[in-house]
């Protein structure tokens, strides 16, 4: 069976296609700002967590849910959000998502108890699941020419990496200056700005007339992802061999298998099977899954490494990641011309190899590491690679997708990023911790054992980047 490529279709009619809207670049800036908030909120609370626990009386176990309560509904509801955007209009769902996200941020900042905060975080995640795929669909609708779309997707795709890199820095600055509530209140003026400007900058798109919404598919994909994330969360305290973890993994596998069966039989599936016939969509999502796993584990391990091994305080550790974020921005801006000249897949593969090289360099840092040589230089290299990788992967994952499926494709690639991050957080740091423990039990020096564990995390992330590069080059459309 040959793969089919779904091409971007423009509406037909007697009238000529209108010229591109001059306001589209301003619209892109606002859409990218909203996407920045969505990604930022997965990491900005990390440094604020100790203060939250003290003020709201949350136990260490409950504090982990300040992050999980956001990521879990975000990742599990993205596909449903994408399909709802395709059915009811991308602008309408985007505005609903940003309104819900802003309101939930106010509730989180004012939360008097831990329970209220966790509910607000869940509402933030659910709202993010509406606006993230809708925003990507709006970008693909606003920019129709190949060159403009490449530039636009470059800007939009770079936001994910920049938001993750900026989370630690902004979280430290805001918490130190204004308290933990500020990491939530910072979303409010931005959300109001987006709500006020998008109706002016982006024309409403018509809702797609369809039959029944695929509620069985939505229930199965949500349940499968909840079971998977729960299993990964339980693996850290109990180990992967624990009956609870094994049972949740088995349940997730069964639910995913049932999802495939249901989606094949559905008249209007939540995840159209035809999307995966497009090798670009398939490859883009596999790459995003691996990049997400490598990136989330990297930023977590790097933040802890800088504080534990290098002795930096939280704010200094965040500031030390500014060169990485700057390199990411530079690469994201330069990658569009490179894609035009050399092709999408070669640029993506080269970017991933650069990421792997930087991670390998970082993994080789000794106990008495020099910041400039062993940390600054490799993290700048990683930033350059991530900038190119995020832009190229996002473009690959939506390339050739029909306008009516743009929301589903956007939800799918965002889901891959979130689930990849969950997998990376559950596996790579656990491997590093196990290595450190084994070395300590064998009588090794504490500092050397700790650095060796961090090196294992960085090396594992590099291996994921190389695997993603291989998928990019091998998983091509059959001619």
From TrEMBL:
<dbReference type="GO" id="GO:0005886">
    <property type="term" value="C:plasma membrane"/>
</dbReference>
<dbReference type="InterPro" id="IPR004638">
    <property type="entry name" value="EmrB-like"/>
</dbReference>
<dbReference type="Pfam" id="PF07690">
    <property type="entry name" value="MFS_1"/>
</dbReference>
<feature type="transmembrane region" description="Helical">
    <location>
        <begin position="371"/>
        <end position="398"/>
    </location>
</feature>
<feature type="transmembrane region" description="Helical">
    <location>
        <begin position="282"/>
        <end position="306"/>
    </location>
</feature>
<dbReference type="InterPro" id="IPR036259">
    <property type="entry name" value="MFS_trans_sf"/>
</dbReference>
<feature type="transmembrane region" description="Helical">
    <location>
        <begin position="446"/>
        <end position="475"/>
    </location>
</feature>
<feature type="transmembrane region" description="Helical">
    <location>
        <begin position="419"/>
        <end position="440"/>
    </location>
</feature>
<keyword id="KW-1003">Cell membrane</keyword>
<feature type="transmembrane region" description="Helical">
    <location>
        <begin position="240"/>
        <end position="262"/>
    </location>
</feature>
<feature type="transmembrane region" description="Helical">
    <location>
        <begin position="155"/>
        <end position="178"/>
    </location>
</feature>
<dbReference type="InterPro" id="IPR020846">
    <property type="entry name" value="MFS_dom"/>
</dbReference>
<feature type="transmembrane region" description="Helical">
    <location>
        <begin position="184"/>
        <end position="202"/>
    </location>
</feature>
<feature type="transmembrane region" description="Helical">
    <location>
        <begin position="61"/>
        <end position="81"/>
    </location>
</feature>
<dbReference type="GO" id="GO:0022857">
    <property type="term" value="F:transmembrane transporter activity"/>
</dbReference>
<keyword id="KW-0812">Transmembrane</keyword>
<feature type="transmembrane region" description="Helical">
    <location>
        <begin position="214"/>
        <end position="234"/>
    </location>
</feature>
<feature type="domain" description="Major facilitator superfamily (MFS) profile">
    <location>
        <begin position="27"/>
        <end position="479"/>
    </location>
</feature>
<keyword id="KW-0472">Membrane</keyword>
<feature type="transmembrane region" description="Helical">
    <location>
        <begin position="25"/>
        <end position="49"/>
    </location>
</feature>
<keyword id="KW-1133">Transmembrane helix</keyword>
<feature type="transmembrane region" description="Helical">
    <location>
        <begin position="347"/>
        <end position="365"/>
    </location>
</feature>
<feature type="transmembrane region" description="Helical">
    <location>
        <begin position="123"/>
        <end position="143"/>
    </location>
</feature>
<feature type="transmembrane region" description="Helical">
    <location>
        <begin position="93"/>
        <end position="111"/>
    </location>
</feature>
<keyword id="KW-0813">Transport</keyword>
<feature type="transmembrane region" description="Helical">
    <location>
        <begin position="318"/>
        <end position="340"/>
    </location>
</feature>
<dbReference type="InterPro" id="IPR011701">
    <property type="entry name" value="MFS"/>
</dbReference>
<protein>
    <submittedName>
        <fullName>DHA2 family efflux MFS transporter permease subunit</fullName>
    </submittedName>
</protein>
């Amino acid at each position: 069976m040959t793969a089919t490529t779904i091409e971007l279709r423009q509406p037909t009619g007697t009238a000529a296609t209108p010229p591109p809207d001059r306001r589209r670049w301003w619209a892109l800036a606002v859409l990218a700002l909203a996407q920045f908030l969505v990604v930022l909120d997965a990491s900005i609370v990390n440094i604020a967590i100790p203060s939250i626990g003290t003020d709201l009386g949350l136990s260490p176990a409950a504090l982990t849910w300040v992050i999980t309560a956001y990521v879990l509904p975000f990742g599990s509801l993205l596909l449903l959000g994408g399909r709802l955007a395709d059915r009811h209009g991308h602008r309408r769902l985007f505005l609903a998502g940003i309104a819900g996200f802003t309101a939930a941020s106010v509730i989180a900042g004012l939360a008097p108890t831990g329970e209220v905060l966790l509910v607000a975080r869940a509402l933030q995640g659910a709202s993010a699941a509406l606006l993230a795929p809708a925003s990507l669909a709006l970008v693909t609708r606003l920019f129709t020419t190949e060159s403009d779309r490449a530039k636009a997707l470059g800007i939009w795709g770079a936001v994910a990496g920049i938001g993750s890199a900026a989370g630690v820095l902004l979280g430290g600055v805001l918490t130190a200056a204004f308290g933990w509530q500020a990491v939530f209140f910072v979303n409010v003026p931005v959300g109001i700005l987006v709500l006020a400007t998008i109706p002016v900058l982006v024309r409403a798109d018509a809702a797609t007339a369809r039959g029944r919404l695929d509620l069985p598919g939505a229930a199965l994909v949500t349940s499968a992802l909840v079971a998977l994330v729960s299993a990964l969360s339980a693996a850290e305290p109990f180990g992967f061999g624990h009956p609870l973890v094994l049972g949740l993994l088995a349940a997730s596998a069964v639910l995913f298998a049932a999802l495939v069966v249901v989606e094949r039989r559905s008249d209007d599936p939540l995840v159209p099977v035809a999307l995966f016939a497009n090798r670009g969509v398939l490859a883009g999502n596999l790459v995003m899954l691996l990049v997400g796993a490598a990136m989330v584990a990297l930023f977590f391990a790097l933040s802890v490494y800088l504080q534990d091994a290098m002795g930096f305080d939280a704010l200094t550790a965040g500031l030390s990641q500014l060169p990485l974020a700057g390199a990411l921005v530079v690469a994201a801006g330069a990658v569009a011309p490179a894609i035009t000249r050399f092709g999408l897949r070669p640029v993506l593969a080269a970017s991933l190899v650069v990421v792997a090289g930087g991670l390998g360099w970082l993994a080789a840092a000794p106990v008495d590491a020099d910041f400039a040589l062993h940390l600054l230089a490799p993290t700048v290299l990683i930033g350059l690679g991530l900038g190119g990788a995020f832009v190229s992967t996002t473009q690959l994952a939506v390339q050739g997708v029909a306008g009516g499926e743009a929301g589903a494709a956007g939800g799918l690639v965002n889901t891959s990023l979130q689930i990849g991050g969950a997998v990376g957080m559950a596996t790579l740091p656990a491997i590093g911790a196990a290595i450190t423990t084994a070395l300590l039990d064998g009588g090794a020096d504490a500092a050397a054992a700790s650095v060796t564990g961090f090196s294992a995390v960085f090396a594992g992330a590099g291996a994921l980047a190389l695997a993603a590069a291989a998928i990019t080059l091998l998983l091509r459309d059959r001619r």
